[in-house]
Amino acid sequence: MNDNQNWVRIEREFDAPLELVWQMWTVPELFKQWYGPNGMSVPAVEMDVTVGGTRKVCMAMTSPDRAMSMWFTGVYKEVNAPSRLVYTESMCDEAGNIIPPQNMGMPEGFPDITEVIVELSHVDGKTKMIMVHVGVAEGSAGSGGWNQAFDKLAALARSQAHVGG
Length: 165
Hints:
Structural class: alpha+beta
Oligomer: single chain
Low-confidence stretches: none
CATH superfamily: START domain
Distance between the termini: 47 Å
Strand content: 35-45%
Number of helices: 3
């Protein structure tokens, strides 16, 4: 077995209805509120959540020293609302043109195209999520970023669920 696992798998349970968690992944205004690691904002999100549709996301960070932004694009491969979402992800420029990940400081060998698989299911009145990001190594900065983002998703979903019902 290869010790260099090239995918991260994160399982979380959210205190919110499945349909709301699905919307957190597929509605740009909701996605912007939780996506990205701590300290990052998401000023731009474009999503055509249909098979073959594209997505483009900008993550940004401003510190006293500098401002930085990273763009990502991808194509939806599977859209099975509200339980399964599969899309590709690549680093890109602001126009959506794919760029080598090394241009953004990623290590040599980091793939140009990765794949995100999200599976949602009902469990005891909550929503269970399994997310696999193929091409991002377990224990990497990307893995840590996902965990931080899912902490934000959990808080947002909980607040939205209690406001809505």
